[in-house]
Amino acid sequence: MNILGISCFYHDSAACLLQDGKIVAAAQEERFNRIKNYPGFPINAINYCLQAKNLTIYDIDHIGFYEKPFLKFARVVLSHLRSYPFSLKNFLRTMPDWLENRLIIPIYLKKELGFEGKTFFIKHHLSHAASAFLVSPFEESAILTADGVGEWTTMTLGMGKDKNITVFKEIHYPNSLGLFYTAVTTYLGFKALNGEGKVMGLAGHGKPEYLDKFREMVQVKSDGSFKLDHSYFGFNKGNRMYSRKFLRIFGPERLPETAITERHYNIAATLQQFTEEILIKIARNLYDLTGSDNLCLSGGVFLNCVANGKILEKTPFKKIFIQPAAGDSGGALGIASYIYHSLFEKQRDYIMKDAYLGPNYTQNYIERILLRQSLKYKKLEDNEISRFMAEKISLNNIIGWFQGRMEFGPRALGNRSILANPCNPDMKDILNSKVKMRESFRPYAPAVLEDRLKDFFVLNVESPFMLLAAPVREEKKTIIPAVTHIDGTARIQTVNKETNPRFWQVIKEFENLTGTPVLLNTSFNLRGEPIVCSPEDAINCFLKSQMDYLVLENYVIEK
Amino acid sequence: MKKVKEIIEKFVHLIQKILIFSALFLLYIFGFGLTFIFAFIFNRRLLGMHAKDKDSYWIETQGYAPDMEGCTRES
Q: What is the largest CA-CA distance in chain B?
């Protein structure tokens, strides 16, 4: 059975192909059309999924869409009514898209793909829940989802058992932890649905001095449920998500690209701590309700790896699973899995051990591109590449590394990565000035050999998808300063030899040379661009930056 | 000839956009406006006003059971 899952028309559209219960291909549209967070119809991602398995649309048995459009439209209309007349601008901006595309999904699929079969729709948060639980290693698990908003729901508590998911409680819009975090993100001068990760990094620099004020804005009950005081916010009013009352309390908003002051650091720190407190309370409540030692997390809020690490540390849950595309792009995976397992009641055999679901490119293809672009290169054997890379990295070179299948989800996990020396305390500044042009407060992340995790970090579980942050061991902070954040933590990726043998080998060779089984791993892209997808993208990125080497499979290009 | 066709197409799209924009504008001002006034007078709960404080903001769920037929519906 071939099932195509699609998520689109809000942000981070994606497609996923499930074949007889196994996820065989998945990708975000932005990687193909090079428009960051692209929300439109993921035609390129769909075509990739079909081509990956030599299928046509006529081989697809069912298509699933990751939410219920009519329910969502009802909420949107009511939201406009409730914000009248301040929602005029948003109304005029968004209504044409609803009328032309979002309310006619089956017709749209027929027009764009020629698909005339059955299309399934499930609730948005059920897509999130399914995207985590149904590909997790757990037979049974508590499930917590949280994001900005789906149809009406912003958060759910549930339980997964075998192939079934039961959702028993939810919180409705406009009470949304995700939108609350986004509102403060925009107040701090960052973009919505893009800047939240930056605010998470900013938080490490500040002190949570505004907790009392946040508690006035958000009423939190003993069971973790919460209600926002909307006199402080305006989710559907004009250009701002926060009100004048909010500005009176916290001062003027920060304009993008302007200086960050101590006040901003402290607001970010408060936001992060406050969000963690709510999530921990909710997770503890969920543990009491379910009694399960396992927890699946999904929804955009759980791209917050610092909060994820705190949930693991401060709740009774022993094991945690967060699917790498935890945001809306993962909805495509969720609906596909749900159709197969929960609706058609097929057994679960597949566990998502890696995120390498995107396209790969042959050595021949790469060589043709290099010749076409008249680039000088050398080709190394398999056993030479990792040693070469490790040596260059140990000498503080920055390498763009392109190998295997592209990752699904926002993190680069060793297949579309820029690698550098974590032992060099200046490497963060070097990377920022030469390649990434990132804000200085943002940390870089480590990739560590799985069996050496506990030597370097205070973390007892694997973190293959870089979605858990944990403290760096005190005695190791001076060994890997470039990946140790100012608050002593790191967003960790554990690398398993079976899952990614080439990446594992590079880190191993680096360890042989330096004694440190850790590399700095950042995404292969320039600021404001999606992660690279094809060799052409990688070459463009390499040429526009000051990276020292580009390694495309076995081909090495030097500047 | 091809260029003329392109220009005509662009012009038609522009007119379409203007018409849709105007219709939506009128719908918002009058349709939503009148609805807002009626709701304000007769049913403020619809506008989310006077929401009461509760002991818990968790809501018991509906519509999550696996239902083959229900999942073919967009609502």
A: 71
Return the structure tokens found at A101: 């595309």
Percent of chain A with pLDDT strictly greater than 90: 98
**Dihedral (CA of B3, B5, B7, B13) sign:** negative
Nearest to A350 by CA among A133, A527, A72: A133
Q: Report the amino acid identity of residue B52.
A: K
Angstroms from A54 CA to nearest CA on chain B: 27
**B75–A71 C-beta distance less than 8 A:** yes
Task: Report the C-alpha gap between A447 and A479 in whole angstroms.
Answer: 14
Phi, psi of A400 (to 5 degrees): -85, 120
Q: What are the strands, taking DSSP E only, across A426-485?
A: 445-449, 468-471
**How far away is chain A from the Cα of B7, in angstroms, using its nearest Cα?**
23
pTM of the model: 0.96
Cα nearest neighbour of A123 on chain B: B64
Q: What is the ipTM of this complex?
A: 0.92
Longest dimension (CA), chain A: 66
3-state helix, strand, coil in chain B (%, to 5): 65, 5, 35
Distance, in Å, from the CA atom of A272 to the CA atom of A180, rounded to the nearest integer, reads 11
Chain-chain contact of A164 with B66 (C-beta, under 8 angstroms): yes
Closest CA–CA distance from residue B45 to any residue of chain A (Å): 10
Q: Which of A385, A398, A363, A387 is nearest to A535 (CA)?
A: A363
Residue B9 pLDDT: 92
String of DSSP letters for A501-530: HHHHHHHHHHHHHHS--EEEEEESS-TTSP
Give residues with Cβ within 8 angstroms of A212, minimum separation 6: none
Q: Among A167, A161, A164, A170, which residue's Cα sits nearest to residue A292?
A: A161
Instruction: Give the confidence band of B52 by pLDDT, cuts at 50, 70, 90.
Output: confident
Amino acid A19: pLDDT: 98
Rounded distance between C-alpha atoms, residue A86 and residue A166, angstroms: 38
Alpha helices in A373-493 (DSSP H): 382-394, 427-431, 453-456
Which tokens belong to A95?
Answer: 């209504």
Give all strands (DSSP E) within A281-329, no chain letters.
294-298, 319-322
Beta bridge partners of A242: A233
For A81, which of B24, B32, B56 is closest by C-beta distance?
Answer: B32
List, for residues A160-202, the tens digit of each pLDDT value: 999 999 999 999 999 999 999 999 999 999 999 999 999 999 9
Is the predicted pLDDT of residue A352 greater than 90, yes or no? yes
**Which residues fall within 8 angstroms of residue A281, CB to CB, at 6 or more apart?**
A220, A222, A223, A224
CB-based contact B56 A84, cutoff 8 Å: no
CA A169 to the chain's CA centroid: 25
d(CA A280, CA B65): 27
Measure B38 CA to nearest chain A CA, in Å. Answer: 11
Give the B-side interface with A, CB within 8 Å. 20-21, 24-25, 28-29, 32-33, 35-36, 39, 46-48, 51, 53-61, 63-64, 66, 68, 71-75
- Other Cβ atoms within 10 Å of A539 Cβ, number: 21
Cβ contact, residue pair A70, B75, below 8 Å: yes
